[in-house]
# Entry
Amino acid sequence: GTGVFVDGPGAGKHIQAGAKKVIITAPAKGADIPTYVVGVNEGDYYHEVANIV
# Structure
């Protein structure tokens, strides 16, 4: 990851370009992008719904 796109609109550019999923590897900006932590809340992730995480 580059850390360049850390918000929904920025990461969404990858979706618009054809990516199926985008993983933000830096702290995401905005309440609309959830953070998942293995062992804490990974059960909240639903791959059918979340395209930007």
Notes: The chain has one helix and no strands.
